[in-house]
Amino acid sequence: MKQNLLKDIENIIMGQKMDEKVREKLLGNLLKLKKQKINLMVTGATGCGKSSTINALFGMEVARIGTSADTETMEIEKYELDNLVIWDTPGLGDGKEIDNKHSKKMIDKLYEKDENGNLLIDLVLVILDSGSRDLGTAYELINNVIIPNLGENKKNRILVAINQADVAMKGKYWNEQENRPESILKEFLNNKVISVKRRIKEATGIEVKPIYYSAGYKEEGELQQKPYNLSKLLYYILQYTPEEKRVIYAQNLNKEEVMWKDSDDLKDYRKGILESVLEV
């Protein structure tokens, strides 16, 4: 069972010796936080690993991992984890007519507003398949469905993440023992990041900052494959989340240490995650 971080914070406030006015202010801020919700939309082409990513980040089988086209999400699925709401959209790429229906559902959700009149969706996480040579469906989704319908502040409401880094070159140049890409694969992935960034900028004028990672996966009866760069993915999700809402993620994250261990080491992402959550 997940620990209720907000309740723990309340207990700490109540248990500490402090001026009562300070205590009242802290409890007031905490009450506001309890009423806040984060709405995260996760989208991408069929087979890109949306469900695996959701499950890896939040440590529970909140999303079904499809094994065939028939088991793919056909409606926008809603998962509620305390104050975190995840909207798992249907995968695109199964035909023009079906894609048009799914796109309309996504656009309607992007225009939906909360009880305060603000746009409901805080962030759209678009997942790409690093091993796919044809990213046409993904670019169609990003350039023509997501970005035009993000409202104001578009560049801070979309995060593009390239999944399945371990099989980007059909499994070649992936160091299984160290769970990280070797230099040839790393260069391939970095070039893909540059290419995706350039193509989106050319089509929309919006500059995104794609990252690559591997969500890992867990099939029934088998051991969990360790993720790679999951901590980097979370770090960037937090950077695109309003400061006052970041702690909401903290109480729902996967508690298995091994899930966050392996990364590109370009930054101490776990330290950055902690600092991001504390910036309130």
CATH superfamily grouping of the largest domain: P-loop containing nucleotide triphosphate hydrolases
- Based on DSSP secondary structure assignment, what is the total number of beta strands? 8
Q: Name the average pLDDT.
A: 86
Which oligomeric form is depicted? single chain
Radius of gyration of CA atoms, rounded to a whole number: 19 Å
The sequence of SSEs as H and E is HHEHEEHEHEEEHEHHH
Largest β-sheet summary = 6 strands, mixed
The CATH architecture designation of the largest domain is 3-Layer(aba) Sandwich
Rough shape? globular
Classify the fold: give the CATH topology of the largest domain: Rossmann fold
Q: Which CATH first-tier class of the largest domain would you pick? A: Alpha Beta
Number of domains: 2
Strand order of the largest sheet: 2-3-1-4-5-8
Number of contiguous helices: 9
Distance from N terminus to C terminus (CA atoms, Å) equals: 26 Å
Structural class: alpha/beta
Q: Level of helix content?
A: 25-40%
Which consecutive residue ranges, at least 5 long each, have pLDDT under 50? 67-72
Strand percent estimate: 5-15%
